Amino acid sequence: MDIFEQLLQDVEIPPLIKVRYRIPADTVSDIGRAVYEALKRENTLDRIQAGQTVAIATGSREIANIAVIVAKLVSAIRRQGGRPFIVPAMGSHGGATAEGQRAVLESFGLTEEAVGAPIRSSMETVALGRTQDGLEVHLDQSAAAADWIIPIGRIKPHTDFRGPYESGLLKMIAVGLGKQKGASICHRLGLPQMSDTIRRVARVTLSQANILFGLGIIENAFHGTARIEAIPASRIEAEEPPLLLEAKRNIAAIPFKKVDVIVVEEMGKDISGTGIDANVVGRSSTLGVWEPWAERIVILDLTDKSHHNANGVGLADIITRQLFDKISLEETYPNTITCAETNAVKIPVIMPTEKLAIQCAIRTCTQIPEEGVRLVRIRNTLSLQEFFISPALVGEANAHPDLTTEDFIWK
After folding, report:
1. pTM over 0.85, yes/no
2. 128's torsion region: left (phi>0), alpha (psi -120 to 50) or beta?
């Protein structure tokens, strides 16, 4: 018995009860039709002329149905006579290398064979000009050489800053298409100013580059496609904020007022920019802590699709050795340096096993009530359709109109 087992052997992990979470969720049933309907909007697909090259910019998040959406867009462009290709628009992600960014796209099913268009991955940029306050604006070199650029982005609340523009099309234009160099410049003024920085940088890109339109995607609470909108370049700044408000209404957070421990089975860049979505667990390295006010967060593993990038691991209090051994500093720290935010990658307490990690979390809690530890276990922050709770939360769950407890008990 090692020292950790000795110190934690008397800590009981409670049995866990399965809970189903029912949230009304709009869902697009036919993705292809939704894409084609969106592209009927004037000043979108109709402006492409035969022979023109079109750069489709896609990012580092595993957006629901992204491979189908991109393939349908490629097909529509070809029918219009255009010559589409794919560019990674992900700032410093993928280890800030062309090969790494291509690998990220391919892990989401965005291969040349699957979408029907070549991938042109490069970290080279061209300088487009400067904002009024002097920030230099960059654009992916391959995209800049195209006749048209179409960014695709999931519009949703960001994990580290607030404002009318968070994750979405303007951020894809300003940060994603700016590659590492442009992303670093965008972060120079800090995350509290980020929403306004995105707007100002994107304005320069929109005025100097051939952005045709943006394809904005809103997801429902359960990582399904809720809405697809084609927005002409001249309308993105005006139309994105209302879509962000809609996306915020779709967020499913852990539905308890107070918990002691949240156990997250997996984190990853494919799930959230910070590995776990701060909007779900109520903890951000920059915005602080809010409901459900978890005293301890445990993360057990890192997804393969994260490609060893553990940005956001610092949101946890305790991780497993299994997760720690998957971390690549070369994949993680370029993102950290670019964003100028170090708290999110500070290494938490490391425990040899999942059991010891959970026991450590329980032991180090200081506010456990008499009825027992209030523990929630989720697969990841995109998967809240069902999760597990300890007996101390059953009463609150039964009183919640959208939660149903089941007989299944995990011991």
Report:
1. yes
2. alpha
Domain count, the chain: 2
Tens-digit pLDDT profile for residues 320-358: 999 999 999 999 999 889 888 899 999 999 999 999 999
Residues listed for the chain: 411
Residue 341 is predicted with a pLDDT of 86
150 and 220 together in one domain: yes
Q: What is the CATH number of the domain that holds 157?
A: 3.40.50.11440
Which residues of the chain, if any, have pLDDT below 50?
A: none
Strand partners, 126: 139
CB 141 within 8 A of CB 124: yes
In this structure, are residues 183 and 338 in contact, taking their beta carbons and an 8 Å threshold? yes
Closest CA to 154 of 105, 214, 237, 100: 214
Give dist(CA 151, CA 168) in Å, integer: 10
Domain boundary among 230, 249, 268: 249
Instruction: Give yes or no: residues 257 and 242 share one domain.
Output: no
pLDDT of residue 411: 67
Look up the domain containing 9 and give its range: 3-23+253-410
Task: Please indicate, yes or no, whether residues 311 and 399 belong to a single structural domain of this protein.
Answer: yes
Instruction: Provide the β-strand partners of residue 119.
Output: 86
Residues 265 and 223 in one domain: no
- Classify residue 1 by its DSSP letter: -
Q: Is 322 helix (H, G, I), strand (E, B) or coil?
A: helix
pLDDT score of 26? 86
261 and 228 in a common domain: no
Question: CB–CB of 394/17 below 8 Å?
Answer: yes
| Interval 244-264: pLDDT, tens | 999 999 988 999 999 999 999
- The pLDDT, as a whole number, for residue 197 is 96
Token duo for residue 320:
């497993």
Are both 35 and 174 inside the same structural domain?
A: yes
What's residue 160's pLDDT?
86
Residues 192 and 121 in one domain: yes
